[in-house]
Write a sequence for this structure.
């Protein structure tokens, strides 16, 4: 705590070294004294008593008091990965869970150690499933080294030692010691041969696999947690920005003379072709001046685009010849044409926004020999690269301190727009930390939206009610075309068919097989930037597949569950969750009058999901979702309580798309704040029940897989209640409202 | 210049009269537990107590705060996170990212002060704060728990037991 006193009295620049940090100091010192937040990086959790802390390996630091500090490379944005990863390390480490703390690494530290901590990117529900093996090995290796150190001290074979809760015992001699006492010696040992590391069978787990409380809750309850937006540093300046409200437009001019006299304003500056920033001594003063700033825009070529023109553009892709087929089994169009009964339907799903509760922000400090950024980012290494390229400092002179995110959902992963803006502003203030925070309006207007999509669905059934063919044509915007064109091979962007794929490659597979099946995609891009949004393309593809499946079942005169089952004999895991959800929900059993069920299954992120929703619809069109039952097979479950929390969260995130969209008028986003981008609230939240059939034979994701069944299960229940399918969102287009 | 009594302490803050109370609390007083989410009193992330009533501080200018008004922020709700709402929130791990939770907790505490045994309908009406992580399911359970009502085994716990 001396660091803070020094800073307050001297007002000097903070010296941030690996072993000298101050994390999240409470600001309420007294009077108007401001506390400063100066995080962090490895060493922060071990800052006190640093000299005696022992880094046993890159994942585990043990303190003399037996505290085990577990290092975390992935970002924490609420999804619970920090706790889950710590559980996995602790399980193999055999330490006392009550003495576990965590510390985060920085992107610069990972770079300096040749990416010893692996991938830092936290997206695609990969945080645990793609690091579980090496973090468990890290925990096991540390345990082996700690045991070896005790064996060496006692001159006994290591095989005679036992360990539980961080206490090592030798039955033969009656001796015992603890991790804290042997960690110093253990840290000097060579790491064990990786081939000799045996991971525990899942059935023997004592810490992992249990619904333990999160490790990061306490400071979310008393205001102590420091998010990126909360950072305070000596001499810090505050900035806010306005980008051209029409994408593709440019900043022509602004009249700073109108605002330079306003209190606290330091600078009004163009930071790129389309963006102006105001820098002031406080954020509120910067915001007020920006709002008052006369700005002239060149709105560019898209100033007349609106939702209607975009819809026409997508409609052209429903029948065009420029599509490619992904699954093309048999001859679906011919089989459908020859069917006793046939059905065709056009579905449409609008753009939507991430709308993280914490608006985009970062704090940048550019010194002659170092570029630093404090940022809530889902990809610290992408932020590091963007910091380097935009500041001109080589990578090794850049550092990214990852602040826990006030929501991510995919917004803070790919495009490092925030980094580039923050650096452009900070360049005007060398050596001074500048915190840039977007207004909510800026955040809504400059997202990377979930892509808009439509689908033409066609199917036929024979006179016995069996499916004769299924033909899915998706038309819509491509994320890869905007963000990663290299991923499009031979003009075929298979990513937009996520969840409709024939094989498991890319970790999602279509749940149905049939002799006549065709899936196609026609790319129809717009001027809006798009990006991954929790669940990405499984969201719209899940709606297309699952809502239409109910329409076809109805045409066939069959029960939607039974109709699906008949197409799933080659997909036992998909079928497994479908049956589990149906059974838990009591499918087929009587419901209260006016309540109807809908069912859906779909796959994403290596996991299998199914849901049953119970819904009633009033004569006035008020839709009440009473209960949702989920089955998620993600193979192994590290923390069932947090897995349930993610599923609960996916319900709310998904249900908001029932009542809100991102629409376009005159080239710009219409929904600029929560008054017209209506986010679902507690009153609309249904009861959520979760079952997690643990099959244990694979590692699937958790954060995203269930969202793709939330909306179709509810829409199918509405269809059952009203007799009318819901083919376009939001519900207001059908005269329905969520209550 | 505005006089503010926050968490039992008096502050003189040198701001323009139209500065929202939220920004005076965050930037002049330095208490950052109260969050900015929308600036238009829609999301509730900025919820504080003004004389015991929950208020959205992002849309309240400091000039509207009268001498003698008592402001409580999340930092002042209890000394040691011991308020029943904070304890219930911890017991069932309500927060995910946590960003909106200061506001949620302040709204829940004000509700319970007014209605010690709220019904689900009371909760629906009073708890209009936005959470994008979707912690609503647990917020409802935790409000009931804080009210001292019996809390049914949550589905999360059921899932836990199933996997135990």
């Amino acid at each position: 705590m001396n660091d803070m006193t020094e800073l307050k009295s001297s007002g000097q620049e903070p010296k941030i070294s690996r072993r000298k940090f101050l994390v999240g100091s409470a600001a309420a010192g007294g009077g108007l004294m401001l506390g400063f937040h100066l995080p962090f990086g490895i060493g922060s959790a071990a800052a006190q008593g640093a000299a005696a802390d022992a880094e046993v390996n890159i994942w585990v630091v043990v303190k003399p008091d037996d505290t085990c500090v577990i290092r975390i490379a992935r970002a924490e944005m609420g999804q619970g990965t920090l706790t889950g990863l710590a559980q996995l390390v602790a399980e193999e480490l055999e330490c006392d869970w009550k003495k576990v703390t965590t510390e985060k690494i920085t992107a610069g530290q990972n770079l300096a150690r040749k990416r010893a901590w692996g991938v830092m990117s936290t997206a695609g529900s990969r945080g645990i499933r793609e690091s579980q093996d090496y973090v468990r090995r890290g925990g096991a290796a540390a345990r082996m080294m700690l045991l070896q150190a005790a064996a060496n001290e006692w001159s006994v074979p290591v095989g005679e030692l036992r360990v539980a809760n961080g206490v090592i015992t030798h039955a033969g001699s009656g001796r015992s010691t603890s991790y804290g006492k042997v960690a110093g010696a253990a840290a000097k040992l060579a790491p064990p041969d990786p081939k000799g590391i045996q991971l525990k069978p899942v059935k023997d787990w004592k810490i992992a696999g249990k619904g333990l409380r999160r490790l990061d809750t306490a400071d979310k309850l008393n205001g102590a947690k420091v998010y990126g937006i909360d950072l305070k540093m000596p001499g810090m300046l505050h900035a806010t920005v306005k980008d051209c409200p029409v994408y593709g437009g440019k900043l022509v001019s602004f009249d700073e003379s109108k605002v330079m006299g306003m209190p606290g304003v330091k600078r009004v500056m163009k930071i790129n072709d389309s963006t102006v920033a105001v820098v002031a001594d406080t954020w509120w003063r910067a915001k007020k001046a920006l709002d008052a700033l006369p700005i002239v825009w060149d709105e560019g070529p898209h100033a007349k685009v609106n939702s209607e023109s975009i819809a026409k553009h997508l409609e052209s892709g429903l029948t065009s010849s420029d599509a490619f087929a992904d699954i093309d089994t048999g001859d679906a169009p011919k089989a459908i044409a020859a069917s006793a009964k046939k059905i065709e339907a056009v579905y449409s799903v609008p753009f939507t926004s991430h709308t993280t509760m914490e608006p985009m922000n970062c704090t940048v400090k550019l010194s002659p020999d170092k570029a630093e950024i404090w940022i809530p980012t889902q990809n610290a290494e992408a932020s590091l690269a963007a910091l380097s390229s935009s500041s001109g400092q080589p990578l090794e002179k850049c550092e990214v301190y990852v602040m826990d995110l006030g929501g991510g959902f995919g917004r803070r992963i790919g495009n490092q727009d925030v980094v580039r803006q923050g650096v452009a502003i900070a360049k005007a203030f060398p050596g001074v930390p500048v915190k840039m925070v977007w207004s909510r309006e800026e955040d809504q207007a400059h997202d990377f939206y979930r892509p808009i999509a439509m689908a033409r669905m066609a199917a036929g059934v024979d006179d016995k009610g069996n499916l004769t063919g299924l033909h899915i044509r998706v038309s819509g915007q491509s994320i890869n075309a905007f963000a990663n064109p290299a991923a499009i091979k031979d003009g075929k962007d298979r990513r937009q068919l996520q969840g409709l794929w024939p094989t498991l490659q890319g970790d999602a597979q279509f749940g149905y097989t049939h002799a006549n099946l065709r899936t196609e995609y026609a790319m129809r891009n717009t001027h809006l930037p798009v990006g991954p949004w929790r669940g990405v393309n499984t969201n719209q593809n899940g709606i297309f597949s699952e809502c239409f499946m109910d329409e076809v079942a109805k045409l066939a005169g069959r029960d939607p569950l039974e109709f699906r089952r008949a197409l799933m004999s080659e997909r036992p895991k998909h079928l497994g969750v479908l049956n589990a959800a149906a059974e838990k929900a009591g499918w087929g059993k009587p419901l209260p009058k006016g309540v109807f069920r809908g069912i859906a299954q779909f796959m994403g992120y290596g996991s299998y999901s199914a849901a049953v929703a119970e819904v009633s619809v009033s004569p006035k069109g008020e839709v009440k979702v009473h209960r949702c039952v989920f089955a998620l097979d993600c193979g192994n479950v590290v923390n069932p309580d947090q897995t349930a929390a993610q599923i609960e969260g996916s319900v709310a995130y998904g249900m908001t798309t029932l009542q809100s969209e991102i629409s376009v008028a005159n080239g710009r986003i219409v929904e600029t704040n929560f008054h017209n981008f209506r986010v679902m609230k507690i009153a609309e939240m249904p009861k959520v029940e979760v079952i997690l059939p643990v099959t244990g034979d694979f590692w699937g994701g958790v954060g995203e897989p269930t969202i793709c069944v939330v909306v179709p299960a509810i829409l199918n229940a509405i269809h059952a209640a009203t007799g009318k399918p819901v083919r376009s969102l939001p519900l207001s287009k059908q005269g329905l409202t969520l209550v | 210049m505005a006089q503010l009594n926050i968490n039992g302490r008096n502050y003189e803050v040198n701001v323009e009269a139209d500065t929202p109370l939220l920004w005076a609390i965050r930037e002049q007083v330095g208490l950052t537990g109260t969050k900015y989410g929308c600036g238009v009193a829609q999301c509730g992330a900025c919820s504080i107590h003004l004389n015991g009533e929950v208020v959205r501080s992002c849309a309240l200018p400091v000039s509207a705060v009268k001498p003698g008004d008592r402001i409580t922020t999340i930092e002042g709700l209890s000394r040691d996170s011991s308020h029943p709402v904070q304890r219930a929130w911890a017991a069932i791990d309500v927060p995910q990212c946590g960003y909106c939770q200061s506001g949620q907790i302040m709204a829940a505490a004000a509700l319970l002060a007014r209605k010690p045994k709220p019904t689900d309908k009371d909760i629906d009406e009073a708890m209009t704060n936005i959470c994008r992580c979707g912690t609503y399911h647990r917020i409802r359970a935790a409000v009931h728990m804080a009210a001292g009502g019996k809390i049914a085994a949550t589905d999360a716990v059921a899932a836990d037991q199933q996997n135990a």
About this structure: Chain A touches chain B through 82 residues (CB under 8 Å). Confidence is low (pLDDT under 50) at residues 1-34, 45-49 of chain A. The first strand of chain A starts at residue 54 and ends at 57.
